[in-house]
Amino acid sequence: MTPGATALTLRAATPADIPALEALIARSARALSRDHYETDQIEAAIAHVFGVDSELVADGSYFVAEWHGALAGCGGWSRRATLFGGDRFARRSSALLDPATDAARIRAFFVAEEQARRGVGRALLSTCEAAAAAAGFGHATLMATLPGEPFYAAHGYRATMRQTQICGDIAVPFVAMIKSL
User: Fold this and answer.
1) Could you report the per-residue pLDDT of 59-79, keeping only the tens digit for each?
2) Which of 43, 56, 65, 83 is 20 to 30 Å from 98 at the Cα level?
3) Do 61 and 78 meet the contact criterion of CB atoms below 8 Å apart?
4) CATH superfamily of 8-180
């Protein structure tokens, strides 16, 4: 599958998509993170951090990837200050960023296990980066999971900081990354 493949379509997510996206995110995290995190870390991240940010859906900057009409992945970008975390993540900010001085946020990328390494993430990332650049942003930043770090590095992002997020009472490592657009 390639970004130009006719069977792969991307569209803006709608509120009606949120339940299916939440299920995809949990399935993706469990399947694609198991070689990088312990089971308790994955479950803690699902419970406290991972998930849809409905503000991105409302902003029209969260996308659904479909392969032959089936949900294949999701991801978005934001002009808001929150770097990562879905609706249930407590440390969120709706403050708008200044494209002249701030980096756009690349947010909440998850791909169905059966679609991993088939161009879904690349198509979503390309769409998000193009939209952020069109909005005047010169850089994009994100908080990568450990399995996501190689993907983002392959697309020009560089790690700026490794950090641990406490999810409930479980420590989960993440990697902050940045790229010039």
Assistant:
1) 999 999 999 999 999 999 999
2) 65
3) yes
4) Gcn5-related N-acetyltransferase (GNAT) (3.40.630.30)
